[in-house]
Structures are given as C-alpha cells and as structure tokens.
Amino acid sequence: KMNALPPRRSFKVILLGDSGVGKSSLFARFNGDSFTEATFATLVQVGSCRRTFRFGDREVTLELWDTAGTERMLSLTENYYHHAAAAIFIYDVNDQATFLGVQSTWVPSIRRRDPTMTTFLVGNKTDLASSSYAFENVTLDEAKRYENSIQDDLKVAGNFQVSVKTEEGVHELFETVAEALCGVV
Ligand code: GDP
Question: What are this entry's molecular-function GO terms (predicted)?
Fold first, then answer.
C-alpha cells in the first residue's frame, strides 16, 4: 500500500544581472562547487541545476538557471525567461553601475514579461565592500528604498547582500527563495 506523498513542487529560478556581478559564481555555489576567482562564463552553455529543500513535510525543488555570459550580447533568449517562477536580480555592491543595470535593464525585462513573478534583489561581493572606494557602495538601505519604489509594479520577496566568495548570506538566500515559492512563509 502506498503512503500519501508529501507535496513536492519544482520551480524554475533565473539569475539576472550585468556581466561580472557573480551570477556564474552563485550558480556554482548552488551546484555545490567551490568558489574560484577564474571566470569561464563565455565558454560554457546556458545551464540549469536542481536542489531540493525540505520544510517540515514539504519539499520544494529549485531549478536554477544561469545566463553563462549570454547577457553580454544582450540576447537572453525567451527560453531563458519561459515558465520562470522567480527571478534573482544581482548587482555588485561595489559598483553602482550594476545596481543601475538592475533598475534599467533587468527589472524592466521581468515587468514586461511577467509582473506576477516572485523576485529577489541581491547585492554581491560584500567581502570587498570595506575597501577604499566604499563611499560609492550600494547600501542595503538604498536597495530597500528601490524595492519600496517598485512594490506596486513587482513582487519583491527578499532583499539581500551576500558574498558568494565567503558564502555569507548565500544559504539564507536560497532558503528564502525556496520558502517563498512553496508558500511556507
Ligand atoms: P557573471 O558574469 O555575473 O556570471 O560573474 P562571475 O560569476 O563570472 O564573476 C565575475 C568575477 O567576480 C569573477 O572573477 C568572480 O570570481 C568574482 N566574484 C564573484 N562573486 C564574488 C564575491 O562574492 N566576492 C569577490 N571578491 N569576487 C567575486
């Protein structure tokens, strides 16, 4: 006799952000790989990878997709966005231009296609943020002000600053995405 299976669902999650902000590095962390300073982004194919999270009797599988450098040609395919349940916007906290990129390119790309999508704002490379050019860092306050300014147009379910290099905040980010998608919180 079969036991009742707990609810189990799988969600596609896409990474969006300017070149160099750390999308491939975050993807590698998700995949269980260690951090590397080298970048092979343009050499690999657009890829996806799955991980399952458990909350009580619920299981949720995230299928994370990485652009693998194709955003450089500003030619992300419709296939990349197709059926995505969530989008993670990534910027470099040390580089205001990449935060502007989120606002001018990546957020509009979702609002245009599917404004009901669950989204997350993620500033990466906090390990570099105390350096001499810290005055121009993107602060979490700044990111939250931006979140408030778009909340009528887009569902932002989390706002994080992380370091993929030191792993600070990375696990919490993925857990929050999984929780948000399976409706635990
Ligand atoms: P992508 O173009 O968005 O996929 O960015 P990559 O993942 O290729 O990262 C670009 C560069 O930033 C690489 O040299 C990475 O090693 C580096 N990088 C990524 N995340 C971090 C981080 O948290 N801290 C530091 N210091 N460097 C990082």
Answer: GTP binding; GTPase activity
Phi then psi for residue 77, to 5 deg, are -75, 155
Q: Ligand 1 centre and the CA of 83: distance in Å?
A: 27
Percent of the chain beyond pLDDT 70?
79
Looking at residue 59, its pLDDT comes to: 87
- The average pLDDT across 130-140 equals 74
Dist CA 58 CA 180 (whole Å): 12
pLDDT of residue 41: 46
- Tell me which residue of 25, 17, 179 sits closest to 87, measured CA to CA: 17
**Would you give the distance in Å from CA 46 to the centre of its chain?**
15
CB-based pocket (< 6 A), ligand 1: 17, 19-25, 37, 39, 41, 69, 124-125, 127-128, 163-165
Q: Are 137 and 143 in contact (CB under 8 A)?
A: no
Does residue 57 contact residue 183 with C-beta atoms inside 8 Å? no
Q: State the pLDDT at residue 3.
A: 59
Question: What is the reported pTM?
Answer: 0.89
Dig out the tokens for 36 from the structure.
């590397």
Around Cβ 111, how many Cβ atoms within 10 Å?
14
Protein residue with least CA distance to atom 10, ligand 1: 20
Please say whether the beta carbons of 31 and 49 come within 8 A.
Answer: yes
CA-CA distance, 139 to 136, in Å (whole number)?
9
